Amino acid sequence: MSELLARRTFLAAVAAAVAVSTLASCSSPASGRHRILSTDPLVATNETRRHWNGNTTAAQLVAAQFMTSVAGKSISTWGYNGALVAPTLRVTAGDKLKVAVTNSLTEATSIHWHGVALQNAADGVPGLTQQAVKPGAEFAYEFRAATPGTYWYHSHVEMQRARGLFGALVIDDPQEPLSYDREWVVVLDDWLDGFGGTPDSVLTALTAGMGMSGMKMDSSSPVLMNSTSAYLGGDAGDVKIPVHLMNGRSTSEPETFAAKPGDRIRLRIINAAADTAYRIGIPGQQMLLTHADGFPTTPKSVDAVVLGMGERIDALVTVKEGTSALLSLPEGKVGNAVGYISTGPASTPPLSMPTQLTGVVTDGGRLKADASVLLPDATVDRTHQLDLTGSMAKYSWGINGRSFDMKNPFARAFEVRTGERVRVVVTNSTTMWHPLHLHGHSFQLANGGARKDTVIVRPKQRVTFEFDADNPGQWLTHCHNAYHAARGMMGVFSYVS
Question: Are the CB atoms for 295 and 451 separated by under 8 Å?
Fold first, then answer.
């Protein structure tokens, strides 16, 4: 990075920090306690307590409009560094990651580092932890990547993530306990930009209201009707998806993963979709699940695994001779995405593709944590109740009956204090499933469940988890359905002192 760029980035970061401080200064707890903002010295001090091995990894991302091809169609969309498949950022646990972001879009943007426990100032939520990076400006994200695992990064400005503004982030374990020959990062996505609309225009159509008699509901409507998934417990999604992608490729242009017979492969699977859960597996072959959202789990052999938006799963598979399909099916929707595992140039893809993945099927929320990552026993100091509310009728969503407003982010915030063990009871009062994500922390699902940061909450069901309040700041929690979040299903876990 040039000295000039570094200086401009530093000045932009300082300006954004000042703006956040000014923005939030008028919002204090009613009791008069101090709210710990991203600019509070406690945040920087806490960051120094994370392990740093002395190494720094630098990267540069440019958010811009570009031309690309999706399913054989030439389209204009947004992405990082001029590619539909953004760079996979890779560091070793203990490294410091410094990413200089240039915004060449026509609107403001930001980057959120999904699943990473990092300093609040780098969390990338405009209006809460920083001001959005304006067009033509730069911003520097810097944090210690202390916890190994499979993570990802994406824009946290409205519907931008539903285009191509996302990529994988892998934090390698210097004492990796797993043994494998190769590793593949697999990113799943539901794509509609350039196929008769944009994510923003789809949100507008949804917001018009499913229950309004004047709403146009012909074949051209992007609204998905009667989409159901028994696995997810009801309505599967809101949006018709023209193309499903695996690593930026449709079924008409699939990726081939080269290997040798007997190779043990580690798959790092990420669901980057906006509105779609995916069921992924290798027809006729089981895979061994080893991690959920970056944390090790009790290994489980399955025929397929379901990922909600924002979730990640690591799995081990042993390569068979010939060509096998790594198949991803959208829950409750039509279509598929596929990649081929091939052991040689003479291998040919299967003549027909299964339309179902059955047998033993699970998801990260139903796995058990490995003993090495279980939270230690502790007395619960505070309990928060989160009721997921809203409906398709007016396409308004919320938590505890309130649609979130970033102009007043601390209204009915869920306050915590540093050092507390916090229990969260999430009740889904809606008829749709929601993948709930918590920023800046991992949580422990009840009864020895997996350590995660995103979990599927089915309709009319309840999920309980606990986390340690060890990362001061202001942290968003929200449904990772991009359209539900944009329409209000968000809240803030607010550290106070």
Answer: yes
* Cα gap 69→80, rounded to integer Å: 15
Query: Do residues 365 and 452 touch, judged by C-beta distance below 8 A?
Result: yes
Tell me what the mean pLDDT of segment 214-229 comes to.
74
The two three-digit tokens of residue 154, written as one number = 């994406």
Q: Which of 170, 191, 187 is closest to 78 using CA atoms?
A: 191
pLDDT digits (tens, 9 = 90+) for 46-72: 999 999 999 999 999 999 999 999 999
Looking at the chain, the whole-number percentage of residues with pLDDT higher than 70 is 90
The residue written with tokens 């997810």 in the block is: 232
CB atoms < 10 A from the CB of 460, how many?
12
49 Cβ partners below 8 Å, 6+ apart? none
- The distance between the two most distant Cα atoms of the chain, rounded to a whole number of Å, is 71
Given a cut of 70, whether residue 226 has pLDDT beyond it is: yes
Q: Which of 473, 357, 337 is nearest to 415 (CA)?
A: 473
**Phi, then psi, of 206 in degrees rounded to 5:** -65, -40
> Which pLDDT score is estimated for 33?
80
Quote the CA–CA distance of 57 and 99 in Å, as a whole number. Answer: 8
Kindly report, residue by residue over 452-484, the tens digit of the pLDDT.
999 999 999 999 999 999 999 999 999 999 999
Q: Which two tokens mark 426?
A: 């999430």
Structure tokens at 292: 């959920």
CA 69 to chain CA centroid, Å, is: 24
Nearest-angstrom CA–CA distance, 40 and 23 = 14
Q: Is 81 left (phi over 0), alpha (psi -120 to 50) or beta?
A: left
CB count in 10 Å sphere of residue 475: 25
Amino acid at 69: S
Q: What is the 3-state secondary structure (H, E, C) of 376-444?
A: CCCCCCEEEEEEEEEECCCCEEEECCECCCCCCCCCCCEEECCCCEEEEEEEECCCECEEEEECCCCEE
Burial class of residue 86 (count of CB atoms within 10 Å of its CB; 0-12, 13-18, 19+): buried
> Could you tell me whether strands 490-495 and 414-416 are parallel, antiparallel, or unpaired per DSSP bridges?
parallel
Q: Tell me the whole-structure pTM to 2 decimals.
A: 0.94
Our CA angle for 321, 168, 376, nearest 5°, is 100
Q: Tell me the C-alpha distance between 12 and 134, whole Å.
A: 10
Q: Which of 324, 327, 405, 312 is nearest to 367 (CA)?
A: 312
Q: Pairing state of beta strands 396-399 and 287-292?
A: unpaired
